[in-house]
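RECORD TYPE: protein structure
NAME: ParA family protein
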Amino acid sequence: MSVIVVANPKGGVGKSTLATQISGYLASQGRVVTLGDLDRQQSSRQWLDIRPAHLRRILPWEISRDEIAKPAKGATDAVVDTPAGLHGNRLDAALKVADVVVVPLQPSLFDMQATYAFLQELREHKRAGKVRMGLVGMRVKEHTIALERFQEFVGTLGIPLITTLRDTQNYVHLAAHGLTLFDVAPGKVERDLAQFEPLGRWLTQPAKAVPLE
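PREDICTED:
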């Protein structure tokens, strides 16, 4: 079973959005997906609660803020949404079970600074070389100076930028109904599906740890 941890110590960067979309993508591929939430706000769990019953099922993963139990029986993939300020015992618990760490990042100075420090912490962790890591740009506006600076910053990290997701209300509207890009007519979210495709391919490729430089 593959365990995907979505993590960034800064709040408001889109962790829950990304965790739910990843879960929806994996479910659309016929996988048995379970979604856990370490965040006190339980945004991903609330999203699961309102997800329509007729859609591809995503199982709840009952985990506490300080302990990650075994995921739902029969699951092929597990996704973990994490809280802001993830460090110490909770970071240890998340990395202990992780095969993949996806780090959402917005193209703002404060987000980039916080993420740089977080990646430094990951480099020093004993499991840093045993997990595959990738960055996802969130709420990215094309053809802006902020995007240029973001791309320059990412180029210094030694961690691949898998894709960027645009700043759109589609994610907000979908989340409000327990939906993902993969639950609606493709024509309605064509551009967003195209942006997500590289991440989907990366997530489902054979697991291989990438050492942090």
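COMMENT: The chain has seven helices and seven strands.
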